[in-house]
Amino acid sequence: MSVDLSEQIDFIGQIPPFDQLPKTALVSLVSLFSINYLRQHDSLQTAFTSARQCGVFVVVRKGIVQQKVKGAIRSKYGEGDVIVINNVDFSNQQKSWLVDQDSLVYSVPLNEMKMVLADYPDILSHWLKDPNQRIHDSVAAQQLNELSASPLNSMTVEEFAHTPAATIAHLESIQSAAIKMTELGYSSLVITKQDVHVGIITDKDIRSRAVAAGLELTTSVNKIMTTDMLTIEAEQIAFDGLLTMIEQGIHHLPVTKSGKLYGMLTLTDLMHKEGQNAAHLTSAIRKATSVSELARIGQMLPQLQVNLTKLGIAAAPIAKSISALSRGITTRLIQLAEQKLGSPSVPFAWLCAGSLARSEQLAFSDQDNAIVYSDDATEADKRWFAELADYVCDGLNECGFIYCPGNIMASNPNWCQSAKQWQQYFEKWVSSPSPQALLNSSVFFDLDVVYGDKTLLLNIKHRVLKMTQQSTLFIAHLSRNAIGNKPPLGFFRDFVLISSGENKSTMDLKHNAIAPIVDLARIYALALGIEENSTLERLQAAKGSHILSKQAGRSLIAAYEFLIQLRLELNALQIQQQKKPSNFLSPKDISRLQRSHLKDAFRVIKELQDSRQVVY
Amino acid sequence: MMNLKNFFTPQKQKFEQQRQALNEQFKDMLAHTLPDEDLADLETDIYAGIRAYLSTPLPDLTTPLIELPMVAVDFETTGLDANRNKLLSVGCVNMLGNQIKLAQRYHQVIDVEQQLEHDNVCIHQITEQESQQGESLELVVNDLLLKLAGKVMLVHFNKIERHFLTKACLHLYGIKPPFVMVDTLLLANQSLRKKGFIIEPRDLTLKNLRQRFYLPNHTAHNALGDAIATAELYLAMMSQRDLTSLTLKDVI
């Protein structure tokens, strides 16, 4: 038979992962499709009831289909979107797929599809696996993608290795190893026996296997070394070294040349190549003597963020690094202010709120901060704090952390207050909550100390967490605010379908997808008394509790990881194109695969928002 | 505009009676065309199609559309005149009720044994080389009749398919079988006029009608692609009506 069905084959072949399918397999698959024209309000379960035993795979060719769960619209499917209706879904009264705009749909019973794709289990499982699992896998694939674009691909290990590797004989004591490491400034040593390398020890081994285990300092190093030491050959490409380290979760990799020890490769070295590394910047920040010097370092953060992204490092650790540098800059600014203004007579603490407090800040974020000082502060002290606040907030702005549009800054007198006043603020927010007030203050429920007396905040936090756990009204108001911010329903061609039924050309990735998860995590934390600030840690801690099932928690974590990774990639692209990073994402700019993952993420968010609605 | 009425499958036309009569008339003659049993596996039985078509009852006029077995068919030809021009390719796909079954499809280019005019090559996009690699008219019509036996044809502008297929049957078998055709062009013309639209001939092309019914842009210019496009148009048009209460009589 000649090549026919070309239109249908082109259409299906564009939908990932079918774009990976060899032409012959694609033709066999498309040959199985049936075409239906469904009218508005038709139910897909009814239309494909003949496939109810095995389930059905449906592709929207034209029109819009919506999924409803318990009567509420969960998701919308447009041209090129895939709907998998499993056999259990056919008897599920709560779940339905209804035609929203007359639709032309292609379909194939799942058992037939399984047969024709038997040789392509990956493609088959992409569609058959739980959508939540799909997000998990996509996060890993995202990072791999970035990795393969790394310049490390064109360089060898030899170009990065320190030579010679620092070694120590296997019968030397742990103490002499520690002394040698300290003198050299190295965090690892290769252990040799008659000049042959037999193992490795790191800072961590000395800490966990020697000190924590109570070993004598005179114990020989071979007692605590790692013997099944991984090595890499000098002529291998540097990228392989990076992959090995990331996979194994190690930071040091001894390098061999023709099997003989040659040198040492560290993760820091590889990252250094990619530009300024975080460790280097940290020490530069500590040594800075003026605001303008700090501002120059601040300007490097966007590029650092791009480099880390390109290295394939996951989004959460990147945000953590950027946050750490942001804290470093803040600390240095305060020290510079103290050099200029002297010191106050009472203890105080510089607080960060919002994303920095959650260690989720990225370059180009705005600043959210506050000051808490001892109740004994004098009028002179208060003037001092006001001056400090102006100095630091102005400095941060110069460093690229722009003024907070909502004026949540220490320079705002409302947020430069005594411990007693802060305690009153929180008591008011929690015990007599109003939705509007909570909207403005929720940023303070992510609060952390950057500099100063930590106990000033800790005391308040403990009391607040006790109160929030008991105040169902407070949690209810917070929930209502959080679920008001709904993620989009899906995509239609190059438009974003938002909950109100409108189409928009872009979506706000931060506001409409990431923030709802951050909000949910905060609610779980406050309701359960979880002390952690970061979204991922909060979700980890809340998962398996009575308000967040293990499975739902896992899905939400995966969705969050996917979204922040996507945001980081979006920002990296914008920074490279010399544009100011924004969180507005146009469906045009992402692949079809990313679109479908995004839809999976939206669905997870909506499911959990809906369940908050049920609880309150 | 041509008088479209000439191209209706006349309701009064007793196609099933015609089929029975023809079957009676040619039964004996066609019986001789059965291949010898010992040669059955070696030779293509090129009369199987016409025998099957004439001996299989056609659907009753009262068959509900939801149960009606249909084949969407499209021909590519070297021109519009069945007496002078030739059939170049045949495409068809089965439909059952409101579903198009891509698994049951057929597409074949025919070797016309003549030079193709450049102008037409642009339209049907079948090159001379492709045509030469095609099958003989005999084999293709035989295949097609096997698929049409007992079924109703769905076409867009039935003049082409009716004339070229009738002509081919006369040429190959000396028989003029009755073909039952549902025509999307005629259906659209009727229903749009009934709704008060002023319809010009160009509104009734497959492309423009698909646009009117918000179907995806259709670009393929091969017979199977057009047959599927016609079938989709039919489903879109009929979606506004109730297929369970309508019968064949309502659409021919």
From TrEMBL, chain A:
Residues 225-283 form the CBS domain. The keyword Repeat applies. Keywords: CBS domain, Repeat. GO terms for molecular function: [protein-PII] uridylyltransferase activity. SMART domains: CBS. InterPro entries: CBS_dom, CBS_dom_sf, CBS_domain-containing, cNMP-bd_dom_sf, DUF294_put_nucleoTrafse_sb-bd, GlnD_Uridyltrans_N. This is CBS domain-containing protein.
TrEMBL record, chain B:
One of its GO terms (cellular component) is cytosol. Signal peptide: none annotated. This is DNA polymerase III subunit epsilon. Residues 69-243 form the Exonuclease domain. Keywords: Exonuclease, Hydrolase, Nuclease. PANTHER family: DNA POLYMERASE III SUBUNIT EPSILON (PTHR30231), PROTEIN NEN2 (PTHR30231:SF4). It comes from Psychrosphaera haliotis. GO terms for biological process: DNA metabolic process. GO terms for molecular function: 3'-5' exonuclease activity; nucleic acid binding. It holds the Pfam family RNase_T.
